[in-house]
């Protein structure tokens, strides 16, 4: 992944390296120029030489300023663009129809798509800064070597020694950073889980236990952050001390050589200036291994998502419009030899006595469960789902769970996320969302907060139902679409769904008498199998268990 980032930004990095190399060369040239000015001024004592020297310093300063400005602009633009690419790529993996086989929660994936993407892209800036710092150190070493071989060798040997020591310390940083990122991601995932379950937690008084659970993972993340800070502090302190030691050694050596008349006063000024200046490129140069290890740790975490295999390998076949749905001898979880067939254009209700069975059936129809994880087959339009591509199945079969997500945006964008503009008025009317629209001056453009925080439970459920109806799928499966609305509204919604979905295949998994009554027939799911198949009213008169289960 790091090689990919470097290859994709080779051009920007080349220009950035040239400009940052010019910046470091200009910075290095400044003390060299000062030494030459002192040397020539003392020798010539000419105003013309002084003016020429000042002009040369102005050129150096201008070069330093402009090269830094444009070099960093190029590198930071490439860095930001590369981070954006990685974020989009991680998000695309999360949004693919087939889930990846990775043991990460949504909060962890979010951390990877943000912090880790940014830190991986930092390699775009690290390499040019590393090369430009090396240029500065080499120029300083050559300049000092021309004055005295001892000074040049001292800089080269000292730089190698500093980097050798710091490279060992940087490995500890990489290990600590990986662990810190993992713990922060776990804390983020815990927060996401708590936000999703906030209302139920309030309902049964689990707030305190949830808080203690989050505090535990947050404390672990904090402790690891402190460890990382200590390691980084030790690294920075060691780098500063070693760089200062090298600068001091260069200064003292130059002073001794000048005292011994082995170098001139101008060369002494140059050496002292370079000794002070060299600390900055050495600091950058010595910090690069740390940033490389951080980028590598982040890239490894992103690879957990990007390189993870899919949970299943779907087929490639397509489907024609329309079609029926058949579940044939399916055994999964609480389902035992489940068999039923819904013809094209039929409205069928499934009364599941056990909530677990309804959940298992929904999971299979949404294809959250790979076909090889259960026995039996599911056929859409006469074709087995394992032969079809996920896109083909989703194009014809839409399963809307009872806890459908509500997104930040507007009522309109929640009903019609793709912006197709089809059937929005009909879906709003059928789901009885008209009163919510009428409440607000903006109508369908009324703002909706994240997870529908500014809507009631019934409004969120009706909004989710409107989205499912507006999709106008060939086969629509609804699970408990009216549990949060009153009986009168439920009756109206049931009639509206039956009317809107006339001649379209519709399956409703529910215990609502209103929905059961408008269905063409009702399948009773009990003990993992279909135990009865009749109309709602016939079952009420002939089946005592059914009457007790659904009568209100």
TrEMBL record:
InterPro entries: ABC1_TM_dom, ABC1_TM_sf, ABC_transporter-like_ATP-bd, ABC_transporter-like_CS, P-loop_NTPase, Type_1_exporter
Protein name, as recorded: ABC transporter ATP-binding protein
Subcellular location: Cell membrane
Residue ranges of domain ABC transporter in the record: 311-552
Record's keyword annotation contains Cell membrane: no
UniProt KW Cell cycle keyword: no
Every ABC transmembrane type-1 domain range: 14-288
GO MF annotations, alphabetized: ATP binding
Record's keyword terms, sorted: ATP-binding, Membrane, Nucleotide-binding, Transmembrane, Transmembrane helix
Lineage: superkingdom: Bacteria
Any single Pfam family the record assigns to this protein: ABC_tran
Topological category with respect to the lipid bilayer: Multi-pass membrane protein
Residue ranges of the TM segments: 12-38, 50-68, 126-145, 151-169, 234-259, 265-286
């Amino acid at each position: 992944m790091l090689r990919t980032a470097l290859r994709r930004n080779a051009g920007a990095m080349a220009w950035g390296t040239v400009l940052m190399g010019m910046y470091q060369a200009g910075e290095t040239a400044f003390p060299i120029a000062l030494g030459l000015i002192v040397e020539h001024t003392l020798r010539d004592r000419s105003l013309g030489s002084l003016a020429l020297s000042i002009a040369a310093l102005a050129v150096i300063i201008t070069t330093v300023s402009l090269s830094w400005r444009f070099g960093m602009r190029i590198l930071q633009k490439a860095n930001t663009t590369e981070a954006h690419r990685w974020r989009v790529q991680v998000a695309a993996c999360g949004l693919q129809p087939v889930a990846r086989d990775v043991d990460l929660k949504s909060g962890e994936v979010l951390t990877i798509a943000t912090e880790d993407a940014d830190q991986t892209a930092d390699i775009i800036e690290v390499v040019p800064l590393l090369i430009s710092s090396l240029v500065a150190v080499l120029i300083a070493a050559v300049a000092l070597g021309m004055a005295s071989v001892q000074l040049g060798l001292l800089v080269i040997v000292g730089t190698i020694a500093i980097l050798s020591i710091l490279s060992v310390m940087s490995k500890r940083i990489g290990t600590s950073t990986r662990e810190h990122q993992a713990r922060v991601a776990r804390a983020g995932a815990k927060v996401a889980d708590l936000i999703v379950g906030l209302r139920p937690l309030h309902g049964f008084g689990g707030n305190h236990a949830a808080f203690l659970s989050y505090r535990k993972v947050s404390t672990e993340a904090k402790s690891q952050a402190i460890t990382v800070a200590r390691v980084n502090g030790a690294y920075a302190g060691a780098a500063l001390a070693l760089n200062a030691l090298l600068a001091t050694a260069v200064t003292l050596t130059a002073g001794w050589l000048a005292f011994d008349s082995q170098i001139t006063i101008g060369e002494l000024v140059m050496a002292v200036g370079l000794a002070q200046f060299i600390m900055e490129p050495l600091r950058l140069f010595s910090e690069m291994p740390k940033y490389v290890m951080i980028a590598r740790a982040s890239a490894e975490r992103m690879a957990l998502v990007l390189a993870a295999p899919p949970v299943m390998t779907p087929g490639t076949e397509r489907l024609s419009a329309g079609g029926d749905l058949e579940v044939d001898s399916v055994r999964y979880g609480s389902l035992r030899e489940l068999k039923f067939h819904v013809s094209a254009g039929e409205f069928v209700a499934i009364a599941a006595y056990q909530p677990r069975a309804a959940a298992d059936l929904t999971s299979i129809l949404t294809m959250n469960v790979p076909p090889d994880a259960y026995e039996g087959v599911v056929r859409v339009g006469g074709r087995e789902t394992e032969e079809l591509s996920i896109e083909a199945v989703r194009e014809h079969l839409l399963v809307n769970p009872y806890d459908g997500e509500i997104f930040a945006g507007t009522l309109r964008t929640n009903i019609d996320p793709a912006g197709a503009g089809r059937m929005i008025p009909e879906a709003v009317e059928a789901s009885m969302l008209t009163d919510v629209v009428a409440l607000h001056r903006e109508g369908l453009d009324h703002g909706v907060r994240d997870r529908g925080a500014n809507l009631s439970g019934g409004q969120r459920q009706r909004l989710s139902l409107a989205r499912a109806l507006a999709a106008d799928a060939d086969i629509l499966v609804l699970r408990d679409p009216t549990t949060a609305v009153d009986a009168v509204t439920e009756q109206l919604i049931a009639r509206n769904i039956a009317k809107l979905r006339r001649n379209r295949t519709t399956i409703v998994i529910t215990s609502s008498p209103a929905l059961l009554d408008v269905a063409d027939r009702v399948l009773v799911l009990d003990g993992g199998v279909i135990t009865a198949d009749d109309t709602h009213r016939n079952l009420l008169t002939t089946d005592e268990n059914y009457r007790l289960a659904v009568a209100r």
